[in-house]
Specification:
Number of helices: 5
Largest sheet: none
Protein name: DUF2306 domain-containing protein
Radius of gyration: 17 Å
Structural class: mainly alpha
Strand content: under 5%
Number of domains: 1
Number of strands: 0
Organism: Flavobacterium qiangtangense
Keywords: Membrane, Transmembrane, Transmembrane helix
Order of helices and strands: HHHHH
Helix content: over 70%
């Protein structure tokens, strides 16, 4: 596999973030920063995104770095909205969307790296342009869109009842 110590740490933290997000989606239909799974997602995604900046076979700023920076911006804004806009029900729409979008963006390198490395010695995909990666990301995109619509509707119901 050829992962550095930073790569191994980044991978472990990233897996924890994904698990926390999935648990949050299953339990409450969203990544909720008020719950332990949401907090775990926030901090592990922050660490994973920042460590991604130190991982690259290409010198200089590359699309992976830009993606990591965008993810950090999304989760920090979502955290700010959660912490500072408690009474603002409209802010929940943006908070939910930004957290879900950060998860979706995190899945792009995750799918690529996983499918081009696993199983060791005979990976499922040959490279980033492999159709399997595109098909997998399409399924994840459709899940993201469906989930975002669901979250919007649920948040709208919550806002009306308050």
């Amino acid at each position: 596999m050829g992962l550095s110590s930073l790569g191994i740490f980044h991978t472990i933290i990233g897996i924890i973030a994904i698990i926390a997000a999935i648990i949050g989606f299953i339990r409450s239909g969203k990544i909720n920063l008020g719950q332990i799974t949401g907090k775990v997602y926030f901090y592990t995604t922050l660490i994973s995104s920042l460590t991604a900046l130190g991982l690259s076979s290409v010198v200089g700023l590359n699309p992976g770095h830009i993606l990591a920076i965008l993810i950090v911006i999304l989760i920090v804004i979502a955290y700010f909205l959660h912490a500072r806009r408690q009474g603002n029900n409209r802010a929940r729409f943006i908070e939910n969307f930004f957290l879900s979008f950060s998860f979706f963006l995190s899945m792009i390198p995750t799918v690529n790296e996983t499918l081009t490395r696993v199983p060791f010695g005979h990976p499922l995909a040959k490279g980033p342009t492999d159709p399997l990666i595109a098909q997998t990301l399409l399924v994840i995109l459709l899940l993201f869109i469906t989930g975002s619509i669901y979250q919007f509707r649920m948040q709208r119901k919550t806002n009306k009842s308050i």
